[in-house]
Amino acid sequence: MLSPTAVMYEDEVRRIQEVADQLAVDSRARTILVVDKNGQLIAAAGNAHELDTTSLSSLVAGNVAATGGIAKLIEEEEFTGQFHEGKGISVHLSIVARRIILVVLFDKNTTHGLVRLRVRKAIEQLEKIFAEMAQRPQQPQVNVFAEITDADIDNLFND
Amino acid sequence: MSFINYSSREINCKLVYYGPGLCGKTTNLQYIYNKTRPDAKGKMISLATETERTLFFDFLPLSLGEIRGFRTRFHLYTVPGQVFYDASRKLILKGVDGVCFVADSQMERMEANIESLENLRVNLQEQGYDLDKLPYVIQYNKRDLPNVVPVEELSEVLNPTKVPEFEAIATTGVGVFDTLKALAKQVLTELRKGG
Ligand SMILES: Nc1nc2c(ncn2[C@@H]2O[C@H](COP(=O)(O)OP(=O)(O)OP(=O)(O)O)[C@@H](O)[C@H]2O)c(=O)[nH]1
Ligand SMILES: [Mg+2]
User: Fold this and answer.
1) In a domain, A35, yes or no
2) CATH number for position A93
3) Residue A153 to residue B185, Cβ atoms within 8 A
4) Residue B99's pLDDT is what?
5) φ/ψ bin of B162: left (φ > 0), alpha (ψ from -120 to 50), beta (otherwise)
6) What is the span of the domain harbouring residue A21?
7) What predicted TM-score, i.e. pTM, was given to this entire model?
8) Nearest CA of chain B to the CA of A116: how many Å?
9) In angstroms, what is the span from residue B162 Cα to ligand 2's centroid?
10) Which residues in A58-90 are b (16+ Cβ under 10 Å) and which e?
11) Residue A4 lies in a domain
């Protein structure tokens, strides 16, 4: 298939959300984002509502894509993570199951060591969820979009 | 790759504006950004050089409204048009759902248009996409300039498969939304097929 559609169901998103919520508590980080490699936000926890998560997701994905490109050029395996230390807030990025980026923003309220430790556990849980998702049938039982009409599409632009 | 989230009831689609350097890709996004209601758009991000040339990408998230209870979101990206940024262009094409090729109508940019279109085809192929099977529209931009190639001629050279094509003046917005709508429509129609 040329451009497959990624589908995520409610219980899958809920399980991913639970992992993010738990990680926010355990790591004492400020914000957790789970982003797919194309820059779509899947789950957010902590004080994410105070941030522009759409912009963050796109930039994080761009960043990971760029470093992935560098890895390829120097014939290195994809880097498994990145760490950017700021004065107030630091960023810890990890690649999960080759297709997801786990982003942790943290401050002086915790340590990089604790964050790394808790992230490791969260990654294991996320990998399990994504492995199960890869197993399930690709197409949704009912394609809700099979029914959309040209009028539905036109209506989107009429305002 | 469109992304359907049954939990938040959202569809996300990625549209990429491609074309030679200075053809007006960033200007298209800027116009769309300026003319879109605040509640229907997010921040526009431009990773650009000091001379305002796109260095990595521009990004503009739009939220168009609902179809069958699903919020439709379009993530618009531009690539850097300058030839030597090819590695970055390839990265931006990952996961693309629809492409708009922006051509520069000026006579002296004809070679650059042809080269960029060829480059688009090759870069898509490298990732397993076929331009002829992807939602795809063409825009002939800068129609306000004096030294432009006639549209018939542009169409003959750049649009042999006759995908939807639009004349535009991105700086004043002529044709900008027509182009976007045509592309968005193709992408949603593709979704209907269950692609
Ligand atoms: N006269 C005229 N100028 C235009 C038009 N569209 C864009 N421009 C101008 O062309 C220049 C380049 O436009 P950009 O939108 O930055 O071009 P780009 O395709 O993003 O270029 P790169 O980022 O280098 O790939 C700017 O000075 C624009 O104002 C148009 O329709 N008519
Ligand atoms: Mg640009």
Assistant:
1) yes
2) 3.30.450.30
3) yes
4) 98
5) left
6) 10-158
7) 0.91
8) 28
9) 26
10) bbbbbbbbebbeeeeeeeeeeeebbeeeeeeeb
11) no
- Contact state of B184 with A157 under an 8 Å Cβ cutoff: yes
Q: Phi-psi category of B194—alpha, beta or left, where left has phi over 0 and alpha has psi -120 to 50?
A: left
CA B11 vs. chain centroid, Å, equals 18
Residue A33 domain-assigned (yes or no): yes
> Average pLDDT, stretch B172-180?
97
Residue A117 lies in a domain: yes
Does B92 contact ligand 1 (Cβ within 6 A)? no
CA-to-CA distance for A94 and B154, rounded, in angstroms?
46
CB B17 within 8 A of CB B25: yes
ipTM over 0.85: no
Closest C-alpha to ligand 1, atom 23: B54
Q: How far, CA to CA in Å, does A128 sit from each of A4, A12, A16, A121, B44?
A: 22, 11, 10, 11, 35
Per-residue pLDDT tens digits for B119-137: 999 999 999 999 999 999 9
Pairing, β A90-96 against β A81-84? antiparallel
Q: Is the CB of B81 under 6 A from ligand 1?
A: yes
Q: What is the per-residue pLDDT across A39-96, written as a single tens digit (0 to 9) for each?
A: 889 999 999 999 999 999 999 999 999 998 889 889 888 888 899 999 999 999 999 9
**Length of chain A measured in residues:** 159
Average pLDDT, chain B: 94
* Partner residue opposite A153 with nearest CB, options B69, B97, B188: B188
Residue B18, pLDDT > 90, answer yes
Chain A CB contacts of B12 below 8 Å: 40
- Are A62 and A55 contacting, i.e. CB atoms less than 8 angstroms apart? no
CB of A86 within 8 Å of a chain B CB? The answer is no
Task: Give the number of domains in chain A.
Answer: 1
